[in-house]
Amino acid sequence: MSGGPPAGAVIVTGAGSGVGASTATALAGRGYRVVAAVHSLDRTAGLDELVARSGAEVEVAELDVTDEPALPAFTAGVVARHGGLHAVVNSAGVTGVETFEDEDLANYRRVFDVNVFGPVALFKSALPYLRASGGRIIAVGSIAGVLGLPFQESYSGSKFALEGILEAFAPVARRSGVAVSVVEPGPISTEAVRRTDWIRVFKGAGPYEGLLRQYVDNAAALRGTLPGLPPTQTPAEVAEAIVDLLASDDPPFRCPTAPGTRLLLARKLADVSGETVGEVTGRWLDAATSETAE
Ligand SMILES: NC(=O)c1ccc[n+]([C@@H]2O[C@H](COP(=O)([O-])OP(=O)(O)OC[C@H]3O[C@@H](n4cnc5c(N)ncnc54)[C@H](OP(=O)(O)O)[C@@H]3O)[C@@H](O)[C@H]2O)c1
Protein backbone atom coordinates (compact mmCIF):
# COMPACT_ATOMS: atom_id res chain seq x y z
CA MET A 1 0.00 0.00 0.00
CA SER A 2 1.55 3.28 -1.05
CA GLY A 3 1.67 6.35 1.22
CA GLY A 4 1.50 4.67 4.65
CA PRO A 5 -1.49 3.44 6.64
CA PRO A 6 -4.83 4.95 5.64
CA ALA A 7 -6.83 7.18 7.96
CA GLY A 8 -9.38 5.58 10.23
CA ALA A 9 -9.09 2.94 12.90
CA VAL A 10 -8.59 -0.80 12.66
CA ILE A 11 -10.64 -2.82 15.14
CA VAL A 12 -8.97 -6.09 16.16
CA THR A 13 -11.20 -8.42 18.20
CA GLY A 14 -9.98 -11.14 20.53
CA ALA A 15 -7.02 -8.84 21.13
CA GLY A 16 -6.40 -9.84 24.74
CA SER A 17 -4.26 -12.82 23.71
CA GLY A 18 -2.83 -14.94 20.91
CA VAL A 19 -3.22 -13.86 17.29
CA GLY A 20 -5.42 -10.89 18.18
CA ALA A 21 -2.85 -9.43 20.62
CA SER A 22 0.00 -9.95 18.14
CA THR A 23 -2.01 -8.45 15.28
CA ALA A 24 -3.05 -5.40 17.30
CA THR A 25 0.53 -4.62 18.33
CA ALA A 26 2.02 -5.42 14.89
CA LEU A 27 -0.45 -3.09 13.17
CA ALA A 28 0.10 -0.34 15.73
CA GLY A 29 3.85 -0.72 15.16
CA ARG A 30 3.23 -0.02 11.45
CA GLY A 31 1.38 3.19 12.25
CA TYR A 32 -2.25 2.01 12.12
CA ARG A 33 -4.67 3.46 14.68
CA VAL A 34 -5.63 0.26 16.46
CA VAL A 35 -8.58 -0.42 18.72
CA ALA A 36 -7.67 -3.61 20.55
CA ALA A 37 -11.07 -5.08 21.39
CA VAL A 38 -10.57 -7.50 24.28
CA HIS A 39 -13.14 -9.97 25.56
CA SER A 40 -12.59 -8.81 29.13
CA LEU A 41 -10.52 -5.99 30.56
CA ASP A 42 -9.56 -8.53 33.27
CA ARG A 43 -7.79 -10.79 30.72
CA THR A 44 -5.32 -8.64 28.81
CA ALA A 45 -2.01 -10.09 30.04
CA GLY A 46 -1.01 -11.29 26.54
CA LEU A 47 -1.68 -7.88 25.02
CA ASP A 48 -0.12 -5.95 27.91
CA GLU A 49 3.12 -7.88 27.56
CA LEU A 50 3.39 -7.23 23.81
CA VAL A 51 2.50 -3.55 24.19
CA ALA A 52 5.08 -3.13 26.94
CA ARG A 53 7.74 -4.90 24.88
CA SER A 54 7.06 -3.10 21.59
CA GLY A 55 6.06 0.33 22.86
CA ALA A 56 3.17 0.23 20.37
CA GLU A 57 0.19 2.44 21.16
CA VAL A 58 -3.22 0.82 21.06
CA GLU A 59 -6.59 1.86 22.43
CA VAL A 60 -7.96 -0.99 24.54
CA ALA A 61 -11.73 -1.48 24.66
CA GLU A 62 -13.90 -4.30 25.98
CA LEU A 63 -16.05 -6.16 23.45
CA ASP A 64 -17.92 -9.43 23.62
CA VAL A 65 -18.63 -10.23 19.97
CA THR A 66 -21.75 -12.16 21.00
CA ASP A 67 -23.27 -9.05 22.57
CA GLU A 68 -25.18 -8.22 19.39
CA PRO A 69 -27.08 -5.16 20.71
CA ALA A 70 -23.80 -3.53 21.80
CA LEU A 71 -22.03 -3.85 18.43
CA PRO A 72 -23.48 -0.85 16.51
CA ALA A 73 -22.66 1.52 19.40
CA PHE A 74 -19.18 0.01 19.63
CA THR A 75 -18.33 0.61 15.96
CA ALA A 76 -20.00 4.04 15.98
CA GLY A 77 -17.92 4.97 19.07
CA VAL A 78 -14.70 3.92 17.32
CA VAL A 79 -15.61 6.03 14.29
CA ALA A 80 -16.47 9.02 16.48
CA ARG A 81 -13.15 8.79 18.34
CA HIS A 82 -10.92 8.10 15.32
CA GLY A 83 -12.71 9.89 12.50
CA GLY A 84 -13.38 6.74 10.48
CA LEU A 85 -12.91 3.02 10.21
CA HIS A 86 -10.44 1.37 7.86
CA ALA A 87 -10.75 -2.31 8.80
CA VAL A 88 -12.19 -4.89 11.14
CA VAL A 89 -10.00 -7.89 11.91
CA ASN A 90 -11.91 -10.58 13.77
CA SER A 91 -9.61 -12.87 15.71
CA ALA A 92 -12.08 -13.62 18.53
CA GLY A 93 -12.81 -17.30 18.54
CA VAL A 94 -13.18 -20.43 20.61
CA THR A 95 -11.94 -23.90 19.83
CA GLY A 96 -11.90 -27.24 21.53
CA VAL A 97 -11.56 -30.98 21.16
CA GLU A 98 -14.73 -33.06 21.62
CA THR A 99 -16.19 -36.33 20.37
CA PHE A 100 -19.16 -36.14 18.05
CA GLU A 101 -21.41 -38.30 20.23
CA ASP A 102 -20.52 -36.58 23.50
CA GLU A 103 -20.56 -32.93 22.45
CA ASP A 104 -23.94 -31.43 23.17
CA LEU A 105 -25.75 -28.98 20.94
CA ALA A 106 -25.43 -26.28 23.58
CA ASN A 107 -21.70 -26.31 22.88
CA TYR A 108 -22.29 -26.13 19.12
CA ARG A 109 -24.47 -23.05 19.74
CA ARG A 110 -21.77 -21.47 21.95
CA VAL A 111 -19.07 -22.11 19.34
CA PHE A 112 -21.25 -20.79 16.48
CA ASP A 113 -22.26 -17.74 18.58
CA VAL A 114 -18.64 -16.71 19.03
CA ASN A 115 -17.09 -17.91 15.76
CA VAL A 116 -19.92 -17.13 13.33
CA PHE A 117 -22.83 -15.01 14.52
CA GLY A 118 -20.68 -12.58 16.56
CA PRO A 119 -18.27 -11.73 13.72
CA VAL A 120 -21.10 -11.55 11.18
CA ALA A 121 -23.00 -9.07 13.38
CA LEU A 122 -19.82 -7.06 13.98
CA PHE A 123 -18.99 -6.89 10.25
CA LYS A 124 -22.59 -5.83 9.51
CA SER A 125 -22.36 -3.01 12.07
CA ALA A 126 -19.07 -1.84 10.53
CA LEU A 127 -20.10 -1.95 6.87
CA PRO A 128 -21.57 1.54 6.49
CA TYR A 129 -18.23 2.95 7.69
CA LEU A 130 -16.14 0.51 5.63
CA ARG A 131 -18.10 1.36 2.49
CA ALA A 132 -17.37 5.02 3.19
CA SER A 133 -13.63 4.40 3.63
CA GLY A 134 -13.17 1.69 0.99
CA GLY A 135 -12.08 -0.50 3.86
CA ARG A 136 -11.39 -4.12 4.72
CA ILE A 137 -12.94 -7.07 6.50
CA ILE A 138 -10.50 -9.73 7.65
CA ALA A 139 -11.66 -12.84 9.46
CA VAL A 140 -9.21 -15.15 11.16
CA GLY A 141 -10.48 -18.47 9.89
CA SER A 142 -8.52 -21.69 9.90
CA ILE A 143 -7.56 -24.58 7.67
CA ALA A 144 -10.43 -26.14 9.69
CA GLY A 145 -12.66 -23.91 7.55
CA VAL A 146 -11.65 -25.93 4.49
CA LEU A 147 -10.79 -29.37 5.93
CA GLY A 148 -12.90 -30.96 8.64
CA LEU A 149 -10.54 -31.81 11.51
CA PRO A 150 -11.18 -34.99 13.52
CA PHE A 151 -12.64 -34.37 16.99
CA GLN A 152 -13.25 -30.71 16.12
CA GLU A 153 -16.66 -30.99 14.48
CA SER A 154 -18.31 -27.88 15.92
CA TYR A 155 -15.15 -25.83 15.46
CA SER A 156 -14.64 -26.99 11.85
CA GLY A 157 -18.33 -26.43 11.12
CA SER A 158 -18.17 -22.90 12.50
CA LYS A 159 -15.10 -22.01 10.44
CA PHE A 160 -16.69 -23.53 7.29
CA ALA A 161 -19.81 -21.47 8.02
CA LEU A 162 -17.95 -18.19 8.46
CA GLU A 163 -15.89 -18.81 5.34
CA GLY A 164 -18.99 -19.69 3.28
CA ILE A 165 -20.85 -16.61 4.44
CA LEU A 166 -17.91 -14.35 3.61
CA GLU A 167 -17.21 -16.07 0.27
CA ALA A 168 -20.82 -15.38 -0.68
CA PHE A 169 -20.53 -11.74 0.38
CA ALA A 170 -17.04 -10.98 -0.95
CA PRO A 171 -17.94 -10.20 -4.59
CA VAL A 172 -20.85 -8.01 -3.46
CA ALA A 173 -18.63 -6.22 -0.94
CA ARG A 174 -15.93 -5.69 -3.53
CA ARG A 175 -18.41 -3.91 -5.77
CA SER A 176 -19.20 -1.64 -2.80
CA GLY A 177 -15.50 -0.87 -2.36
CA VAL A 178 -14.86 -3.24 0.56
CA ALA A 179 -12.34 -6.10 0.37
CA VAL A 180 -13.16 -9.26 2.33
CA SER A 181 -10.50 -11.83 3.24
CA VAL A 182 -10.25 -14.94 5.38
CA VAL A 183 -6.88 -15.73 6.90
CA GLU A 184 -6.24 -19.45 7.23
CA PRO A 185 -3.60 -20.50 9.71
CA GLY A 186 -2.73 -24.10 10.44
CA PRO A 187 -1.74 -24.91 14.02
CA ILE A 188 -0.65 -21.94 16.16
CA SER A 189 1.16 -22.05 19.49
CA THR A 190 -1.44 -20.25 21.62
CA GLU A 191 -3.34 -20.96 24.81
CA ALA A 192 -6.47 -21.87 22.82
CA VAL A 193 -5.64 -25.57 22.47
CA ARG A 194 -3.73 -25.86 25.75
CA ARG A 195 -6.94 -24.88 27.59
CA THR A 196 -8.66 -28.17 26.66
CA ASP A 197 -9.97 -30.05 29.69
CA TRP A 198 -8.53 -33.44 28.64
CA ILE A 199 -9.84 -35.28 31.70
CA ARG A 200 -13.43 -34.33 30.82
CA VAL A 201 -12.96 -35.01 27.10
CA PHE A 202 -11.40 -38.46 27.61
CA LYS A 203 -14.05 -39.33 30.22
CA GLY A 204 -16.83 -38.54 27.74
CA ALA A 205 -15.14 -40.16 24.76
CA GLY A 206 -16.66 -43.65 25.32
CA PRO A 207 -16.02 -45.90 22.30
CA TYR A 208 -13.80 -43.24 20.71
CA GLU A 209 -11.36 -42.95 23.62
CA GLY A 210 -8.71 -45.16 21.98
CA LEU A 211 -8.87 -43.24 18.71
CA LEU A 212 -8.79 -39.89 20.48
CA ARG A 213 -5.80 -40.91 22.59
CA GLN A 214 -4.01 -42.14 19.46
CA TYR A 215 -4.75 -38.84 17.69
CA VAL A 216 -3.53 -36.76 20.64
CA ASP A 217 -0.41 -38.94 21.03
CA ASN A 218 0.37 -38.64 17.30
CA ALA A 219 0.02 -34.85 17.47
CA ALA A 220 2.11 -34.61 20.66
CA ALA A 221 4.88 -36.80 19.19
CA LEU A 222 5.09 -34.47 16.21
CA ARG A 223 4.56 -31.25 18.27
CA GLY A 224 1.18 -30.66 16.63
CA THR A 225 2.46 -30.98 13.08
CA LEU A 226 0.67 -34.11 11.88
CA PRO A 227 1.63 -35.39 8.41
CA GLY A 228 0.28 -33.02 5.77
CA LEU A 229 -0.26 -30.17 8.24
CA PRO A 230 1.85 -27.02 7.92
CA PRO A 231 4.38 -26.35 10.71
CA THR A 232 3.05 -24.79 13.91
CA GLN A 233 3.27 -21.00 13.68
CA THR A 234 3.63 -18.37 16.36
CA PRO A 235 0.88 -15.76 16.78
CA ALA A 236 3.45 -13.18 15.58
CA GLU A 237 3.89 -15.06 12.29
CA VAL A 238 0.15 -15.14 11.71
CA ALA A 239 -0.03 -11.44 12.62
CA GLU A 240 2.59 -10.66 9.96
CA ALA A 241 0.42 -12.36 7.33
CA ILE A 242 -2.49 -10.15 8.46
CA VAL A 243 -0.30 -7.02 8.29
CA ASP A 244 0.74 -7.96 4.72
CA LEU A 245 -2.87 -8.63 3.77
CA LEU A 246 -3.97 -5.24 5.07
CA ALA A 247 -1.14 -3.55 3.20
CA SER A 248 -1.97 -5.31 -0.07
CA ASP A 249 -3.69 -3.25 -2.74
CA ASP A 250 -5.40 -6.35 -4.08
CA PRO A 251 -5.97 -8.74 -1.17
CA PRO A 252 -7.03 -12.31 -2.02
CA PHE A 253 -10.18 -13.74 -0.47
CA ARG A 254 -8.39 -16.72 1.05
CA CYS A 255 -5.00 -16.25 2.67
CA PRO A 256 -3.15 -19.31 4.03
CA THR A 257 -0.52 -18.11 6.50
CA ALA A 258 2.02 -20.95 6.68
CA PRO A 259 4.34 -22.30 4.04
CA GLY A 260 3.03 -25.60 2.76
CA THR A 261 -0.59 -24.77 3.55
CA ARG A 262 -1.46 -24.05 -0.05
CA LEU A 263 -0.61 -27.63 -0.97
CA LEU A 264 -2.83 -29.01 1.78
CA LEU A 265 -5.73 -26.74 0.84
CA ALA A 266 -5.20 -27.50 -2.85
CA ARG A 267 -5.81 -31.19 -2.14
CA LYS A 268 -9.36 -30.17 -1.27
CA LEU A 269 -9.83 -26.95 -3.20
CA ALA A 270 -9.05 -26.30 -6.83
CA ASP A 271 -9.25 -22.56 -6.13
CA VAL A 272 -6.91 -21.91 -3.23
CA SER A 273 -6.90 -18.10 -3.29
CA GLY A 274 -10.64 -17.87 -4.01
CA GLU A 275 -9.98 -15.84 -7.15
CA THR A 276 -11.78 -18.22 -9.51
CA VAL A 277 -14.96 -18.45 -7.44
CA GLY A 278 -14.89 -14.67 -6.94
CA GLU A 279 -14.57 -14.17 -10.70
CA VAL A 280 -17.45 -16.51 -11.47
CA THR A 281 -19.88 -15.22 -8.83
CA GLY A 282 -18.68 -11.65 -9.35
CA ARG A 283 -19.60 -11.82 -13.02
CA TRP A 284 -23.18 -12.56 -11.96
CA LEU A 285 -23.23 -9.08 -10.42
CA ASP A 286 -21.81 -7.21 -13.39
CA ALA A 287 -23.55 -6.08 -16.57
CA ALA A 288 -25.23 -9.08 -18.19
CA THR A 289 -23.26 -11.25 -20.60
CA SER A 290 -24.64 -13.79 -23.04
CA GLU A 291 -22.31 -16.45 -21.63
CA THR A 292 -24.10 -19.62 -20.51
CA ALA A 293 -22.97 -22.30 -18.10
CA GLU A 294 -20.77 -25.01 -19.55
N1 LIG B 1 -4.66 -21.79 17.98
C1 LIG B 1 -4.73 -22.39 16.80
O1 LIG B 1 -4.10 -23.44 16.57
C2 LIG B 1 -5.55 -21.77 15.69
C3 LIG B 1 -5.41 -22.28 14.40
C4 LIG B 1 -6.13 -21.71 13.35
C5 LIG B 1 -6.97 -20.65 13.61
N2 LIG B 1 -7.11 -20.17 14.88
C6 LIG B 1 -8.02 -19.03 15.09
O2 LIG B 1 -7.25 -17.93 15.50
C7 LIG B 1 -8.09 -17.03 16.24
C8 LIG B 1 -7.36 -16.60 17.49
O3 LIG B 1 -7.15 -17.73 18.31
P1 LIG B 1 -5.82 -17.90 19.17
O4 LIG B 1 -5.20 -19.16 18.76
O5 LIG B 1 -5.05 -16.65 19.15
O6 LIG B 1 -6.43 -18.19 20.63
P2 LIG B 1 -6.70 -17.24 21.87
O7 LIG B 1 -5.44 -16.71 22.42
O8 LIG B 1 -7.59 -18.01 22.77
O9 LIG B 1 -7.50 -16.01 21.21
C9 LIG B 1 -8.88 -16.00 21.08
C10 LIG B 1 -9.37 -14.72 21.71
O10 LIG B 1 -10.78 -14.62 21.49
C11 LIG B 1 -11.34 -14.09 22.69
N3 LIG B 1 -12.75 -14.40 22.77
C12 LIG B 1 -13.36 -15.57 23.08
N4 LIG B 1 -14.68 -15.40 23.11
C13 LIG B 1 -14.92 -14.10 22.80
C14 LIG B 1 -16.09 -13.30 22.69
N5 LIG B 1 -17.30 -13.83 22.91
N6 LIG B 1 -15.96 -12.01 22.37
C15 LIG B 1 -14.75 -11.46 22.16
N7 LIG B 1 -13.60 -12.14 22.27
C16 LIG B 1 -13.70 -13.46 22.58
C17 LIG B 1 -10.55 -14.72 23.81
O11 LIG B 1 -10.70 -13.96 25.00
P3 LIG B 1 -10.79 -14.70 26.43
O12 LIG B 1 -9.67 -15.68 26.47
O13 LIG B 1 -10.65 -13.57 27.39
O14 LIG B 1 -12.15 -15.35 26.46
C18 LIG B 1 -9.14 -14.68 23.22
O15 LIG B 1 -8.49 -13.46 23.57
C19 LIG B 1 -9.39 -17.78 16.52
O16 LIG B 1 -10.40 -17.32 15.64
C20 LIG B 1 -9.03 -19.22 16.20
O17 LIG B 1 -10.14 -19.98 15.77
C21 LIG B 1 -6.41 -20.69 15.93
Would you write up a description of this structure?
This protein has 294 residues and is an alpha/beta fold. The chain has a single domain (9-196, 232-280), classed as Rossmann fold. It has eleven helices and seven strands. A seven-stranded parallel β-sheet has the order 3-2-1-4-5-6-7, sandwiched between helices. Helix 3 packs parallel to helix 4 (105-133). The protein starts with 8 loop residues before the first strand and ends in an 11-residue tail after the last helix. The relative contact order is 0.14. The model has no long low-confidence stretch (mean pLDDT 93). It binds NADP nicotinamide-adenine-dinucleotide phosphate.
Quick summary of this structure?
The protein has about 290 residues and is of the alpha/beta class. The chain has helices at about 20-30, 45-55, 70-80, 105-135, 155-175, 190-195, 200-205, 210-220, 235-245, 260-270, 275-285; strands at about 10-15, 35-40, 60, 85-90, 135-140, 180-185, 255.
